[in-house]
TrEMBL record:
It comes from Meiothermus granaticius NBRC 107808. The keyword Ligase applies. This is Serine--tRNA ligase. GO terms for cellular component: cytoplasm. Transmembrane segments: none annotated. PANTHER family: SERINE--TRNA LIGASE, SERYL-TRNA SYNTHETASE. The lineage of its organism: Bacteria, Thermotogati, Deinococcota, Deinococci, Thermales. It is found in: Cytoplasm. Residues 136-407 form the Aminoacyl-transfer RNA synthetases class-II family profile domain.
Length: 423
């Protein structure tokens, strides 16, 4: 959410961002509400001041003067009992609209309504030319008995998966490999739950606009987060950190749950788009300084590119458009990795900077060097998400005999140079 003061002083810039991000927010309605709240606050504060003055006067009044003053006090109290609920109701409506205000996108973001405007800025590596007819990842899994997708559907429903043998061990090896890469860059390794609370999802930004993506438990008593980012973003909510302890660099492994509402028919086969998956997440909370945010953004992006390069996978870098990046983003860059069986790149990583949009929602603050309490800036990025990355690893590194080579950097974690069929 944006700072009300900023909105009052820059309505046209906010209006432009609303339009560029395809938001349905009615800014005039928000500004009108803001003026009404300010006016009601002025009235209630004036009445409260008068009630205090009146009570002091009554305490010192003579017996003759006192009844009139007590009457006046009652009349003021009655007026306040009328105005205060109105003020609370208007403040609630204003807060709901503030949740829908968009961060102004950076000037380099392609302006457009959807992902067709995302801009490929560079590629790394080249798609492999196979000297044999390559298999897709589902065929490789079936050929080597590396999983059981049918029985997963039987026991867990659609968009589920079971990994077996070398592929199960490979997933675990990859997740630890990714965590170690982040530790080497100064990130603190964490494991975090997926079970979370409604206010934490509001603080993150998933609520109110994308509730349909989130599974609820026990009728909304708890929710299953789609990414560790949700919980990491709530960790320091309500606290006042010291600037000296920033930036917080967190690397979190967690299960992630997504309803994939709206994705009917897309990627229904295999490991690309499932309801429950694992992800090593990069999350940063830093001081409210654009240069610091940009520096950390580049650090996180290069960590993820380094992981894809270590996995010897061809990928491309996309500057995400204003319409595709979502309300809270200042900047978003996606990494897409080559999928031989589809003959195209598919998203595997998403790096975002949100300035103080999440910090205002989740009340993330710190005391700066001058002693001022300020909202922090937040950023997040994918380090590695399985099983989607297994699609690319199996297909790109397959041999004609159906075995799959393990990239050099991961061999110490997996223990072998190849994935092989169960004996
Ligand atoms: N339904 C899904 N099934 C498998 N993998 C998924 C699914 N949804 C997302 N992912 C993986 O998780 C990555 C990050 O998801 S994201 O929504 O784009 N971004 C985030 O969650 C951010 N917190 C950065 O990680 C995606 O790039 C993709 O690799």
């Amino acid at each position: 959410m944006l700072d009300l003061k900023f909105i009052r002083e820059n309505p046209e810039a906010v209006r432009k961002a609303i339009e560029q991000k395809g938001s349905s927010l009615n800014l005039d309605e928000l500004l009108t509400l803001d003026r009404q709240v300010l006016e009601l606050k002025r009235q209630t504060e004036a009445l409260q001041a008068e009630r205090n003055a009146n009570a002091k006067a009554a305490a010192k009044a003579t017996p003759e003067e006192r009844p009139a003053l007590i009457e006046r006090g009652k009349a003021i109290g009655h007026q306040l009992s009328e105005l205060e609920p109105q003020l609370r109701e208007l403040e609630g409506k204003l807060k709901q609209l503030l949740y829908l205000t968009p961060t102004l996108p950076w000037e380099g973001a392609p302006v457009g309504p959807d992902d067709s405007f995302n801009l490929e800025t560079r590629t790394h590596g080249r798609p492999r030319t196979f000297l044999f007819e390559p298999l897709d990842h589902v065929a490789l899994i079936e050929k080597n008995d590396w999983g059981d997708l049918e029985r997963a559907a039987k026991v867990s429903g659609s968009r589920s998966y079971i990994l077996k043998g070398d592929l199960m061990l490979y997933e675990q090896a990859l997740l630890r490999f990714a965590v170690d890469r982040l530790i080497a860059a100064g990130f603190t390794p964490m494991s975090v739950p997926a079970l979370t609370k409604e206010e934490v999802l509001y603080g993150h930004g998933q609520f109110p606009t994308a509730r349909d993506q989130v599974y609820s438990v026990n009728g909304g008593e708890a929710f299953l987060a789609g990414t560790a980012e949700v919980l990491l973003n709530g960790l320091y909510s309500g606290e006042i950190l010291n600037q000296a302890e920033l930036p917080k660099l967190l690397a979190a492994l967690s299960p992630c749950f997504r309803s994939e509402a709206g994705s009917a028919g897309k990627d229904v086969r295999g490991l690309m788009r499932v309801h429950q998956f694992n992800k090593v997440e990069q999350y940063v909370l830093c001081r409210a300084d654009l240069e610091e945010s940009n520096r950390l953004f580049e650090t996180m992006l290069s960590l993820s590119e380094g992981i894809l390069q270590a996995l010897e996978l061809p990928y491309r870098v996309l500057e995400v458009s204003t319409g595709d990046m979502g309300l809270g983003k200042y900047r978003q860059v996606d990494l897409e990795t080559w999928v031989p069986s589809e003959g195209r790149y598919r998203e595997t990583h998403s790096c975002s900077a949100l300035l103080d949009w999440q910090a205002r929602r989740a009340n993330l603050r710190y005391r700066d060097a001058e002693g001022r309490v300020r909202y922090a800036y937040t950023l997040n990025n994918t380090a590695l998400a399985t099983p989607r990355i297994l699609v690319m690893l199996l297909e790109n590194h397959q041999n004609e005999d159906g075995t799959v080579n393990v990239p050099e950097a991961v061999r110490p974690y997996f223990g072998k140079a190849k994935l092989e069929a169960a004996r």
